[in-house]
Amino acid sequence: MTTATTPSTPPLASDDPSHSLRWSPRLWGTLVVLCAAMFLDALDVSMVGVALPSIGAELGLSTSALQWVVSGYVLGYGGLLLLGGRAADLLGRRRVFLVALGVFAAASLLGGLVDSGPLLIATRFLKGVSAAFTAPAGLSIITTTFAEGPARNRALSIYTTCGASGFSLGLVLSGLLTSAGWRWTFLMPVPVALIALAFAARLLPRQAAPERGAGGYDVAGAITGTGALLLLVFTVTEAQGAGWASLRTLGSLAVVAVLATAFLVIESRTAHPLVRLGIFRNGGVSRANLTAATIFGSYAGFQFIVTLYLQRLLDWSALEMALGLLPAGALVALSATRMGAIVDRFGTNRLLVIGVTALTAGYALFLRLDEHSSYVGLVLPSMVLLGIGFALAFPSVNIAATSGVADEEQGLASGLVNTAFQVGSAVVLAVTTAVITAGSDGGETPAAQLDGYRPALLLVTGVALAGLLVTVVGAVVERRRREPAPVPDYRYERAEELVKG
């Protein structure tokens, strides 16, 4: 285990964010650096999508190979997040963040220069791995630097809305950059990452070196847990091509179950587990992770459907589609500086209910799609609702997932919620793709495409409804927990005693 965080320079300590929202330039700089890394991580998830046709044409990649340009990143990111979060706790958050951000910059540069499909996929996997370490390390630096309460809520709101903005604006930037050449979608993050790295080395608070023998390394847990996550993401990604009922898919899922069972057994018995299972006794943390999986999973499926619908059926260009989705990202970005105060006033549970309701309504409204839908009549209302939903739900779920967790386990809590985002995204996207293929039956006519999109939209809406149910239960549980216990009226007991006497 790492010891308590000890800043190396007095200015950061003197800011004392526990008691004041008036932060010094140094503290603001720390937050901006972490936000930049989070923005790049999220940006990379969505930015490559629009560039895929150009990449395939230049490098001669098949459709299945192109899929791995996206899936390689998700595999590294989703599969290693738990390990990344625990490494931040054990090796030092600052050290892990700096090394991983440097690897991210190098992999981005290589990705923009290679002329080989397999090498490009390898750089994408490497970027995913680096993001799996920067995301939980950055989030845990915030939660250990800013005390739980208004200061942390404000910092987390800014941080998470930067991530949501990166994910939402990735399509817009990709449309602009791809018009100049697909390689720019890989090269653009390089200077941003290097500048962030230079400032991070100066601004991030230092930690005392972990005491030898104080923590220990759960090697068996790391192997089984990471193996289970990697194989799960790989299996659901490949299931569309291999078939969900194929021996290969079922066999892989069986191995995932065996690895997951072994992981749980190991974690329950080891003295220093990779994931302390007792963390899930915190109901708020457990519900936040379930909600995170549904939020990101439903949005990943929806974005995939909308991309196909607008480009294939309505014949929009990549840039037109990117600009059409801009309102959602703009609403999230504009809300960044205000969400902390909103969370303080209304609480995370109430905002989660409102936010996930808005997301569900946005998906449901899109069920009205047809061959001649207009932007104002169909797309814009859903984008506005999705922007409102993400602005409210994304910061709230991150705050809920790290609340009530000790400093030495903030990396673990951050890794868990980020894992929930990525695994939920991978699973729901894979199922959405299967539903579209089955519904359209391989047809390319507008009617056949709509027969695939509508049931897929119902699936996405159902996933969001499941998330809404979890948030409603959480709000009810939290409300009952805070209600004061009834005070007994002893007058009636005394009166009964007098009557009996």
Automatic annotation (TrEMBL):
GO MF term list? transmembrane transporter activity
Extract the CDD domains matched here. MFS_MMR_MDR_like
Q: Where is the Major facilitator superfamily (MFS) profile domain?
A: 30-479
Q: Which UniProt keywords apply?
A: Antibiotic resistance, Cell membrane, Membrane, Transmembrane, Transmembrane helix, Transport
Example GO BP: response to antibiotic
Q: Note the SUPFAM superfamilies from the entry.
A: MFS general substrate transporter (SSF103473)
The UniProt record lists the keyword Iron: no
Q: Look up and give the membrane topology term.
A: Multi-pass membrane protein
Where does the UniProt entry say this protein principally localizes?
membrane
Q: Where in the cell is it found?
A: Cell membrane
The portions of this protein that span the membrane are 27-53, 65-84, 96-113, 125-146, 158-178, 184-204, 216-237, 249-267, 288-310, 316-337, 349-369, 375-394, 415-436, 456-477
- The source's domain of life comes to Bacteria
Kindly give the InterPro entries that the UniProt entry links to this protein: MFS, MFS_dom, MFS_trans_sf, Sugar_transporter_CS
Gene Ontology CC, one term: plasma membrane
Q: Which Pfam families match?
A: MFS_1 (PF07690)
* PANTHER family the record matches: BLR6921 PROTEIN, MAJOR FACILITATOR SUPERFAMILY MULTIDRUG TRANSPORTER MFSC
Listed name of the protein = MFS transporter
Q: Native species of this protein? A: Kitasatospora camelliae
